[in-house]
Amino acid sequence: MDDPERIRAYRRLLDPALDPRVRAEDPFAPMLYFSFWPQGAPEGMTEALQRLARSVHVRRELLQLLDVCETETRALPERLNGPLESSPLRSHARYSRDELAAALGLGTRTKGTPGSLVSGVRWFPEARVDLLLVTLRKSEAQFSPSTLYRDYAVDESLFHWESQSSTAAGSPTGLRYRTHEQRGSQVLLCVREATAGDIGTEPFTCLGTVRYREHQGEKPMRILWELDRPMPPELLAHARAVA
């Protein structure tokens, strides 16, 4: 975790004295909740987070972890563009799959739970956002031949991305990708180098909103996205190396 605002929010949510009504309305609450209960807890978000905050030993360990994250963070997160500016997500910060899905409303505004998100794409109709989750180095042991897409950075502001193998250019999904600006929807690109890192599942770096530039072919569509914020140099090196 490398977003100072999220670190402060999680500390606040872990305060056992916090008014449950305030906790329930915090935009970061679903992100913390679904990080621990990806499929949701039987008692619901508010009571589950209260239980978490009242667990002395767990709370102490989490606060210590947040302190370490705050000390080691090097990211320069910024608010996203357009309607997503009001979301708790920040460009160049790193998130788990569950945090990203929860921040966009899965499990609250959108039916389902973050734990049910297994593919690399998801349309959030209430938020009017297409979420693209990209793993740069794909292992044949973890990806089927039909999902070994060629995703890579062209430069710091252009990203080559392949849609799902069933997506035709004239399909509802293909049209949404191509005309998202005219339709008033957004596309959010999040990238990680590999599925697993040194300490477990690798988080995704939120590169922020992107805009459609052009595409070639279909099933899959080979789309060129233009980033609204240039890619961080370290991730850019990895993203260009897989081209």
How would you characterize this protein structure?
The protein has 243 residues and is α+β, with helices and mostly antiparallel strands. It folds into two domains: 1-74, no CATH class; 76-243, Roll (PUA domain-like). 32% of the residues lie in helices and 23% in strands. It has nine helices and twelve strands. It has helices at residues 4-13, 20-25, 29-36, 45-54, 56-72, 97-103, 172-178, 180-183, 233-241; strands at 78-79, 90-91, 94-95, 121-124, 129-135, 152-155, 158-162, 186-192, 196-197, 200-201, 204-216, 222-227. Strands 3, 4, 5, 6, 7, 8, 11 and 12 form an eight-stranded mixed beta sheet that branches. A two-stranded antiparallel ribbon has the order 1-2. A hairpin with a 5-residue loop joins strand 11 (204-216) and strand 12 (222-227). Helix 1 (4-13) runs antiparallel to helix 5 (56-72) and helix 3 (29-36) runs antiparallel to helix 6 (97-103). The radius of gyration is 18 Å and the shape is globular. The two termini are 28 Å apart.
